[in-house]
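Support reply, case 0932

Customer input (verbatim):
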Amino acid sequence: MTDRNDLERVAGAALRRRAFTNRGMLPPTHLADMGRELVGLLLDPQENLDHPAARMVARGLSFVSAQEAGLAVQQAALDAADLPMLAQVSGRMATLIAAWHKAELDGLRREQEDLREAVVRALAEQREESDRQRLAAERSQQEQDRLAALVTELSAPVIPLYDGILVLPLIGSIDTRRAQDVMENVLESISRHQADSLIIDITGVAMVDTGVVQHLLQTARAVGLLGATVVLVGINPEIAQTITQLGLVITEIITLGTLQEGIVYALRRRGLSVQAITAASAAAARQGTARLSLWR
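Our regenerated output:
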């Protein structure tokens, strides 16, 4: 049986190695406590990991750090030939990864909405000031242009999720101008990251009509010319019904229900997967005939 204290030390050491990837002002002295908390998530039975993952993300612990700690714990169980713990840790890590991605994307969406609301308020205040001070019209226009550019940038955030996989969460309405900005940002990001999969999440899109679908199809064709594939996720029943009633055809885009399914599909295209490690594969690894990791 693998000693829990040893696993906690292994997890803490892994977190310290990846401390530079954390966000905010997360003190290094807190990493040992987080290592113990991560080991608890992997070993102790819990029905739902969404809340613990969201709490640790809010404290600034990055996915890369958590993944590194999980792999270290997994390797420690493998080195100790503790097959029951190895199988448990591998299965829990798969669940924790899904919860972590959800927490990070939820946090990003909240930050985007807060920033967009702040920018809109700033634009409204600037327009009122411009009405009161006509002599400052030129300076006011320049400031409005700067803020409008910031709104555009926040409208199409392309997130590198994994090597070769990008995520584009869309929120709010999509008009012609925003669609053009989205396409330009997407194509530049695919070229820069050499990506082969783009997951477009429309969970936050308020309404889908013919124009929105046409914009998505145009983006998919442009992405295809760069050798990448578009995966559309987040289609709720209302949007599905709207698309059907309008007689729209989106066969050029792969559609899946949730972001998690999109991530699994994109990983599979690269020959990767999120899965539990069996006792048989663990035995093969000890004999030097196979290499175990979270993703393979």
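We compared this against your earlier run and they match. Two observations from our side: The chain has eleven helices and five strands. The longest strand covers residues 197-205. Please reopen the case if you see a mismatch on your end.
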